[in-house]
Specification:
By secondary structure, the protein is of the alpha+beta class. The chain has two domains: 2-232, Rossmann fold, CATH 3.40.50; 243-332, OB fold (Dihydrolipoamide Acetyltransferase, E2P). Helices cover 25% and strands 31% of the residues. The protein contains nine helices and 18 strands. The chain has helices at residues 40-47, 94-100, 107-120, 136-148, 166-182, 199-205, 223-228, 233-238, 247-250; strands at 2-11, 14-24, 29-34, 55-60, 63-64, 79-82, 154-158, 191-196, 208-213, 216-221, 243-246, 264-267, 272-275, 279-288, 293-298, 304-309, 319-324, 331-332. The strands form four sheets. A six-stranded mixed β-sheet has the order 6-7-8-3-9-10, sandwiched between helices. Strands 13-17-14-15-16 form a five-stranded antiparallel β-sheet, with no helix packed on it. A hairpin with a 5-residue loop joins strand 15 and strand 16 (304-309). Helix 2 runs parallel beside helix 4 (136-148) and helix 4 runs parallel beside helix 5 (166-182). The two termini are 35 Å apart. The structure holds adenosine-5'-diphosphate and magnesium ion. Magnesium ion binds next to helix 1. Residues 2-239 form the ABC transporter domain. InterPro entries: AAA+_ATPase, ABC_SmlMolc_Importer, ABC_transporter-like_ATP-bd, Mo/tungstate-bd_C_term_dom, P-loop_NTPase, Transp-assoc_OB_typ2. GO terms for molecular function: ATP binding; ATP hydrolysis activity; transmembrane transporter activity. It holds the Pfam family ABC_tran. This is ABC transporter ATP-binding protein.
Length: 334
């Protein structure tokens, strides 16, 4: 439905977005993960028609999305971008902020739709407050309600979780999941793109996950595939906790010979197990994580690994043994 082809955007000597192509489909969520400065916000502005591309193009249902230099009012009527800072009108209520998006509709429909959105986004109780009188989570939900009020074809979200505490992150995550997966509109649905520097929340609701590195989309795939088969150490780190160890230091685990001894092995903490007899290791630190513990162990001068366990009897300095399923690991470029 929304197609970007070889988008490139330069700022003076910075190539903020390089040759990015992607597709967003109705009723589907794509998440792009990238470090700060990797071009996430610039890409969203290009997709929304709020910045002019240096090359490449964006099409919505086959029709080209024009950049701000080509139109009187920048932006596209069916593409909504929720900015990181929400950009709500500060002096009017939550309700009025949402209703404003529906100002061209008849009052009876507007009232009906605003009530529906307030309920859906769990804002009914705070509808008469102005933005500075509500929490960050409520502000984010107001911005989302406003963005989807008139059922846009495309919803773009810039770091929707980054200003929120954990309970609110989960509320917003679940809300987005419900909105995109279940709120079909007259048989059509909204396509959604979330960009974030922290994959934790996006990983669980995205249908497709992309990794953005220095303006380039270096990998896309199902979240589970990108998580288990990142193409490089950056993609591995952007999608969750990972141990990276030089191949040459890891050969003692019985890996096959390799030409590239500086390549890295990426090992997720859950791929390492504590065993009764295995590779000897010393516990360096124990972190309580609620449902489990994170343990840092030292295997040799060069190899420190983090692993997960439910055991509560471990402490720093203790000798343990670990095992690693070496069949599931492979070297990647740094
Ligand atoms: P992200 O949202 O991933 O943090 P941005 O898209 O904001 O990344 O920025 C990508 C790159 O482009 C960065 O190097 C940033 O410094 C640069 N950049 C962004 N906006 C501008 C601008 N208006 N002028 C010059 N450089 C910019
Ligand atoms: Mg940004």
């Amino acid at each position: 439905m929304l197609t970007a082809t070889r988008l490139t955007k330069l700022y003076a000597d910075v190539r903020a977005v390089r040759n990015v192509s992607l597709n967003l489909e109705p009723g589907r969520i794509m998440a792009l993960v990238g470090a700060s400065g990797s071009g996430k916000s610039t890409l969203l502005n290009l997709l929304a028609g709020l910045a002019d591309a240096d090359s490449g193009e964006v099409r919505l249902n086959g029709e080209r999305v024009k950049g701000p230099s080509e139109v009187l009012v920048p932006g596209h009527e069916s593409i909504r971008l929720v900015h990181q800072e929400y950009q709500l009108m500060p002096n009017v209520s939550v309700r009025e902020n949402i209703a404003y998006a529906l100002r061209f509709f008849e009052k009876s429909y507007r009232d009906f739709r605003v009530n529906q959105l307030l309920k859906l986004c769990r804002l009914t109780d705070v509808q008469d407050r102005i933005p500075r009188q509500v929490s960050g989570g409520e502000k984010q939900r107001t911005a989302i309600a406003r963005a989807i009020a008139d059922k846009p074809a495309v919803l773009l979200l810039d770091e929707p979780f980054s200003h929120l505490d954990l309970p609110n992150r989960l509320i917003v995550r679940d809300l987005l999941f419900d909105l995109i997966r279940h709120e079909t509109i007259d048989g059509s649905a909204t396509a959604c793109l979330i960009v974030t520097h922290d994959a934790t929340d996006a990983l669980s609701i995205a249908d497709t996950l992309g990794i953005l590195c220095d303006g380039k989309l270096i990998q896309t795939g199902a979240p589970v595939d990108v998580y288990h088969r990142p193409i490089n150490a950056y993609a591995a780190r952007m999608t969750g906790p990972v141990n990276t160890v030089k191949y040459k230091h890891f050969q003692l685990f019985g890996l096959p010979e390799s030409d590239n001894l500086d390549a890295l092995i990426c090992l997720r903490p859950e791929q390492i197990k504590l065993t009764d007899s295995g590779i000897p290791a010393t516990i360096r630190a124990v972190y309580f994580k609620g449902s489990h513990y994170e343990i840092d162990v030292e295997v040799s001068r060069y190899i420190s690994l983090r692993l997960l366990t439910e055991r509560s009897d471990l402490q720093a300095g203790q000798q343990v043994a670990i095992s690693i399923a070496t069949s599931g690991i492979w070297p990647v470029k740094n």
